[in-house]
């Protein structure tokens, strides 16, 4: 956004400190994709209806297309890049692979983050709670069945 | 049954790992230093005559590099299927004198970033005289309807060699025609005549990744196009055609498609992004908004089908008349071909010894329709299967029984004269009933597709 006023914003992204110069109206989706080069969060609608741009802010799911970058100053931001540790995939990622829960893959990081937020908060959710927490995001390819199966397999393994 | 090693077994998605780690690359991830962004100024009205376009204020927006109009397009008038002989070209890449649907691109603003491009597009002023729009394809076929096509008819002309399916020089008609046997005689000898009317609404593909394209001029005069298209060769031919470039100078790189479902076949975004890259000599990116995805990307055509069947006392179809009206929207795209597919499929998978079908590809002042998952066959199937149910009900026969009776058997001849060497509908229906825990009567279970 062409604006003369820019702010220095500092936050933690996947355990690494980040510092960016952004105009006050810039959304987190654009900051992460264009300034920090995190490509796993994706533009699907820009208006809060699809969830392809989901990130975790202090562990809670947020739509980065509706989040001003200045509002994450001092916060903890997680994207799917922050889930695997030392080359070892997170159990949710493994479950998505095992259950073929991704077809085109565009929506996948968003779903994985939603599920992580849910399981961190409630390690033993019911099937209905899982459905409820995933219902904010859209997938147009898989028909949701495999996504739900992947999710429930992680719940059962706990 | 023989044990199959591959069929029926899940195969892991090649990309599963990169999808789950967010590493899959889509066109939106492609970026080059100095890359510009494009944004279209679009028609606010469904039908109108452009009297004046003022884009000076757009050029004054800081960051706006260029505003392109139809005069910048080397070959502005096109039709997506030109390479299989479909014509005449009816769609301007950028609107000239007339606009024919809400959202039709008129100018393309190219700017240093998406914000400046957006602001530039908002500053463009257009004086457009609104004309009465054609919104209903059946209205468009009535005598006296305003004509929106250069050839003097609101339907595509088939049969004279410009439909990609018939030899040149034939008699042109505003519908595609399929004829077999003596259908009038079938109707005279029928015990029942059953009519039906079936309407299917348009459908949007709504992929989660909207249309997106990056075009980059190379130092040697070539052009590289990063495209979310499902049809890279189709894109290359069409871009070459509108830019009057050699195909060999264009390289199309098709990255992962974030959902397409047929909606990412038509080359609209690639043509204009490529033009912008050539005109500015800079890499250019264009990503459609969700609103554009819904309002200007193609849809599955809204379709109306009239069917009328001649049926014997013992439940055999003797003949069928069909009339299919396909709403192409403002421009041809791939509709002329889709209508051929729809029309020949009006028999469904059934043995219909005599038939007369007409398929109309009709233009209206709406966003164009085009490919989507089995288009043509899908719309016909919807109508045909509802009609089969209706016939069964009205002659008092079970609809499974009715379908078994009329299913293609090996050696039957289709409406286009094709001998069915591999008919399996009866076997498929038996298996479907089994999976649905439905007990079919013994005499149906004894049937097979063998003659
Ligand atoms: S891009 Fe943020 S919800 Fe769709
Ligand atoms: S896998 Fe394509 S949108 Fe979900």
**Largest interface: chains, residues each:** A-B, 40 and 37 residues
Largest sheet of chain A: 5 strands, mixed
Structural category of chain A is alpha+beta
Proportion of residues in helical segments of chain B? 25-40%
Gross morphology of chain B is globular
Fraction in beta strands of chain A: 15-25%
Q: Would you count the extended β strands of chain A for me? A: 5
Distance between the termini of chain B: 22 Å
CATH superfamily of the domain at 27-131 and 205-295 in chain B: Aldehyde oxidase/xanthine dehydrogenase, a/b hammerhead
Q: Summarize the helix and strand pattern of chain A as letters.
A: EEHEEEHHHH
Distance between the termini of chain A: 45 Å
Report the CATH architecture of the domain at 27-131 and 205-295 in chain B.
Answer: Alpha-Beta Complex
* Rounded Rg of chain B: 25 Å
Task: Give the uncertain stretches of chain B in residue-range form.
Answer: none
Count of helices of chain B? 13
Present as ligands are: FE2/S2 (inorganic) cluster
Strand order of the largest sheet of chain B: 3-7-1-15-12-13-14
- Unreliable segments of 5+ consecutive residues of chain A: none
Largest sheet of chain B: 7 strands, mixed
Please, could you describe this protein's structure?
The complex is a heterodimer of chains A (158) and B (451). By secondary structure, chain A is of the alpha+beta class. In chain A, 32% of the residues lie in helices and 16% in strands. Chain A has helices at residues 28-35, 91-98, 108-121, 127-134, 145-157; strands at residues 7-13, 16-22, 54-57, 60-63, 76-78. Chain A has a 5-stranded mixed sheet with strand order 2-1-5-3-4, sandwiched between helices. In chain A, helix 2 (91-98) crosses helix 5. Chain A starts with 6 loop residues before the first strand and ends with a helix. The relative contact order of chain A is 0.15. The model of chain A has no long low-confidence stretch (mean pLDDT 95). By secondary structure, chain B is of the alpha+beta class. Among the domains of chain B are: 27-131 and 205-295, Aldehyde oxidase/xanthine dehydrogenase, a/b hammerhead (Aldehyde Oxidoreductase, domain 3, Alpha-Beta Complex); 176-202 and 299-387, Aldehyde Oxidoreductase, domain 4 (2-Layer Sandwich), CATH 3.30.365.10. Chain B contains 13 helices and 19 strands. Chain B has helices at 16-20, 56-59, 114-123, 137-141, 183-189, 232-243, 268-280, 290-295, 335-344, 377-395, 399-406, 425-435, 442-445; strands spanning 36-42, 48-54, 64-68, 77-78, 91-92, 98-99, 105-111, 125-130, 176-180, 192-200, 203-204, 212-217, 223-227, 250-254, 284-287, 299-300, 303-311, 317-329, 354-363. In chain B, the strands form 5 sheets. A 7-stranded mixed sheet of chain B has the order 3-7-1-15-12-13-14, sandwiched between helices. A 5-stranded mixed sheet of chain B has the order 9-19-18-17-10. A 3-stranded antiparallel sheet of chain B has the order 6-2-8. In chain B, helix 6 (232-243) packs across helix 7 and helix 9 runs parallel beside helix 10. The mean pLDDT of chain B is 96. Chain A binds chain B through residues 1-2, 33-34, 39-47, 49-50, 52, 79-81, 83-84, 89, 93-94, 96-97, 100, 102-109, 112, 138-141, and chain B through 10, 12-13, 15-26, 28-29, 31, 62-63, 113, 115-116, 205-210, 256-259, 261, 287, 289-290. The complex binds FE2/S2 (inorganic) cluster (2 copies).
